[in-house]
């Protein structure tokens, strides 16, 4: 039996926690689980806003029915078609055969494609309004945040933005559902890891959506993952603005690959020089130990980056190659890059990392360091110089 959670007198949270799934999208680790949020508005008409991942449907239906009892659902608003939210659409339709499924012109073909549902569909356009009685819903398209059909729904009377995946976070809602019921800073890292890895490629569509929504008076943001935000609205909009415009802070991520420790030693020496030059935020990651989602999340936070890799079969170390490919695929912008490499007979890792930095139009710190065999005096000094130069570049940008 679940206690209903109210956003307002007639608007309820009916989302669920998933603490069992190891990998979100079978890719991203979930050490703190994930919440699939769904909401229901109980008015003259009943509207359900998004559903949940199908594996969680039993809990979801219990919650939903504890709110609406025997009343039918009139509208199912599909803000986003990803299966973690649209996964239960078919079942809702079977249980409530008269429900009208509401989406935009990109949603409805997906409803047909995924569920073979072709009737009782209702297409809405930018700015359209749906009257539920006391409550009125407005729809705004947010294409490529981060799927093409994504839209958000604004409830006018309570001024709640149902924002689909935007402003979402990994992590379950452990009793506290609203940001002011918890230490919200606990969610910052998981929110950024969610944004950077899932949405991060689509900075410019996010910017467009933020501009579009800036005219709305928003009192609450109800995303499909993570806490409902009502006390940190400006802060999270600011965070999204920074991340989507690739605005970073002072600090350095050092990501290295190393089989025998030669490249790691170069990274350590460089890190020490960066610290001595006055940079306080340094995050060093072994790409073979730490999942790339955490490294990418910190790359979205800090401007400085050092990539260090041995040459491996004439290429980058495979785990560095994987990270490099993700960064390239995401089009991560505006970083200062220091490059380190180690080899034994013919080095190519520095060349490859330079190509990556150039492809992403990053500022590459001069004099990348490539050492043959173990680290010796001359290259040791070069690593120190590189670290100092990177730190000075970041410090020069203060204010
Ligand atoms: C499987 C394998 C492939 C390698 N391929 C190359 C190569 O193509 N060119 C080269 O110069 N060194 C190559 N090496 C040597 C390493 O790049 C070199 O030992 C380097 O110093 C290792 O750095 P680490 O101690 O950080 O792992 C290879 C080593 C291994 C184990």
TrEMBL record:
Transmembrane segments: none annotated. CDD domains: flavodiiron_proteins_MBL-fold. It holds the Pfam family ODP. Residues 252-391 form the Flavodoxin-like domain. GO terms for molecular function: electron transfer activity; FMN binding; metal ion binding; oxidoreductase activity. In the N-terminal section; belongs to the zinc metallo-hydrolase group 3 family. This is FprA family A-type flavoprotein.
